[in-house]
Design a protein that fits this description.
The complex is a heterodimer.
Chain A (H helix, E strand, L loop, with lengths): L4 E3 L2 E4 L5 E6 L6 E7 L6 E7 L2 E5 L6 E5 L5 E5 L8 E8 L9 E2 L3 E5 L1
Parallel strand pairs in A: 2-11
Antiparallel strand pairs in A: 1-3, 3-8, 4-5, 4-9, 5-6, 7-8, 9-10, 9-11
Chain B lengths: L2 E4 L4 E4 L4 E3 L1 E4 L4 E8 L5 E7 L5 E4 L2 E4 L9 E3 L8 E9 L8 E2 L3 E6 L1
Parallel strand pairs in B: 2-12
Antiparallel strand pairs in B: 1-4, 3-9, 5-6, 5-10, 7-8, 8-9, 10-11, 10-12
Classes of the chains: A mainly beta, B mainly beta.
Chain lengths: 114, 114
């Protein structure tokens, strides 16, 4: 049983650019959630995908978008990058969209915007 | 809305000392409560959880009791080890919601010295 894997592990982008982060969910999990963790802060919910549909969204602007594929892997896309987007982006997969306490987290992608 | 407030860190202890990290919550529904741990350079790992009032979650010598009357879920360990050095996050989900998002506290950095 493989865990949740994210790629890349580190990324440096320039303000105004676009970025795509990837997540492979744990086998058997149909739900993927994305979180942003700024330095010294707790993770903040961005959105959740359940069976390829966006199931809910936190307080993030539309330039944060995502996809979930038939194999339940997922992408997070961020357009028009801002300096404040620098953070650790965490992906979590779970066997259902509720009770996220059963979610398994990846190691994260550290994004630096310069 | 739902939120979690954690004791400010950092916390520095000697090995074998007693640990308490305070956590209180605000929830509109009926939450499940969690403690997650983040070791340096890694993602989040579920440490323990409790799903109803008076439940005690425990794992690896850590314990926390779901106190509905005080809306608290304090983390305790009787004798910490150097290997417990990490960031600890208190979190909740609203079990009455169809969107199983996690709400996290800001995290408490624990450093244990030999």
């Amino acid at each position: 049983e493989t865990g949740v894997t994210q790629s890349p592990t580190h990324l440096i982008k320039t303000r105004g650019q676009q970025v795509t982060l990837r997540c492979s969910s744990q086998s058997g999990h149909n739900t993927v959630s994305w979180y942003q963790q700024a330095l010294g802060q707790g993770p903040q919910f961005i959105f959740q995908y359940y069976r390829e549909e966006e199931n809910g969204r936190g307080n993030f602007p539309p330039r944060f978008s995502g996809l979930q594929f038939p194999n339940y892997s997922s992408e997070l896309n961020v357009n028009a990058l801002e300096l404040d987007d620098s953070a650790l982006y965490l992906c979590a997969s779970s066997p259902g969209q509720v009770d996220q306490g059963e979610a398994f987290f990846g190691q994260g992608t550290r994004l630096t915007v310069v | 809305g739902d939120s979690v407030t954690q004791m400010e860190g950092p916390v520095t202890l000697s090995e074998e000392a007693f640990l308490t990290i305070n956590c209180t919550y605000t929830a509109t529904g009926y939450p499940s409560l969690f403690w997650y741990v983040q070791y340096p350079g890694e993602g989040l790992q579920l440490l323990l959880k409790a799903t109803k009032a008076d439940d005690k979650g425990s794992n690896k010598g850590f314990e926390a009791t779901y106190r509905k009357e005080t809306t608290s879920f304090h983390l305790e360990k009787g004798s910490v080890q150097v290997s417990d050095s990490a960031v600890y996050f208190c979190a909740l989900t609203d079990r009455g919601s169809t969107l199983g998002r996690l709400y996290f506290g800001r995290g408490t950095q624990l450093t244990v010295w030999p």
